[in-house]
Amino acid sequence: MTVDATKDDHSFPAARTDFFDTDIAARLGMNGQPPVRILLLYGSLRERSYSRLLVEEAARLLQTFGAETRIFDPRGLPHADDVDVKNHPKVKELLELSLWSEGHVWCSPERHGTITGLIKTQIDHLPLVSGGIRPTQGRTLAVMQVSGGSQSFNSVNQLRQLGRWMRMFTIPNQSSVAKAFEEFEENGRMKPSSYYDRLVDVMEELVKFTLLLRGRADYLVDRYSERVKEDRLLDPATDLVTDPTSQAITDHSRKEAQTSNQ
């Protein structure tokens, strides 16, 4: 895992940090919440991989917005149909990280008008169901792409399709960086631009949605058809538990509404 790539530099030369929202949980009435846990995947093994550089910049921002991050290093990951892949250490690592996470960031280069095989392989190793556990269902997802040429949205659109198939909550905003080779300094940091501003928007939004779904994701993806198949009735004694976090959000919203009406 490339978990140390962002630890030494939390300066943001491309941003106006005085405009950062670093108190997202508090603004949602969720003070005291632990950091949201975000897994980031990138789609190129090149030495100067722009999808990796964009993911590293995203991780720095997420940490600043109150998240805990892990970046998966896909080097050495086998093909999804290789023999006995479930026992491969890289596959186990990826699955464990997904189970640890509450949200994902997927970033792919656009290659031949589509996502790369590497990013697809990582997603293919994440089963919909594994021993009754669902390593992606109910998690939030932010999608990003880098292009060597002009602006395109092919990869982010395909990543959205994959996210829907994996039963994830893909946030509305997204990032697509055109001519990525022009957008990064030699040291790997991103230059100031509208692309960078959009990246900040996306990461801020991901933290917000992940916090809002915390403790509710399992209920939101619960399906009638599955309850019928499992002969599992809803039980008011267990399924209508009052969530103190939900009450805090309700109280905060009511206070905001009263203030706006004054």
Structural write-up:
The protein is of the alpha/beta class and 262 residues long. It has one domain (15-223): 3-Layer(aba) Sandwich (Rossmann fold). Helices cover 39% and strands 12% of the residues. It is built from 10 helices and 6 strands. It has helices at 24-27, 50-64, 89-100, 117-124, 154-165, 194-213, 217-220, 224-229, 236-239, 244-261, and strands at 36-42, 67-71, 103-109, 140-146, 169-170, 175-177. Strands 1, 2, 3, 4, 5 and 6 form a 6-stranded parallel sheet that branches. α4 (117-124) links the parallel β3 (103-109) and β4 (140-146). α2 (50-64) crosses α6. The protein is globular. Mean pLDDT is 86; it is low at 244-254.
CATH C-level name: Alpha Beta
N to C succession of SSEs:
HEHEHEHEHEEHHHHH
Which class best fits the helix and strand makeup?
Answer: alpha/beta
Q: How many structural domains can be distinguished in the coordinates?
A: 1
Approximate helicity band:
25-40%
Mean pLDDT: 86
The second-level CATH architecture is 3-Layer(aba) Sandwich
- Largest sheet report: 6 strands, parallel
CATH superfamily: Flavodoxin domain
What is the element layout, followed by pairings?
Layout: H1 24-27, E1 36-42, H2 50-64, E2 67-71, H3 89-100, E3 103-109, H4 117-124, E4 140-146, H5 154-165, E5 169-170, E6 175-177, H6 194-213, H7 217-220, H8 224-229, H9 236-239, H10 244-261
Parallel strand pairs: 1-2, 1-3, 3-4, 4-5, 4-6
Helix pairs in contact: 2-6
Q: Care to give the gist of this entry?
A:
The chain has 262 residues and is an alpha/beta fold. 39% of the residues lie in helices and 12% in strands.
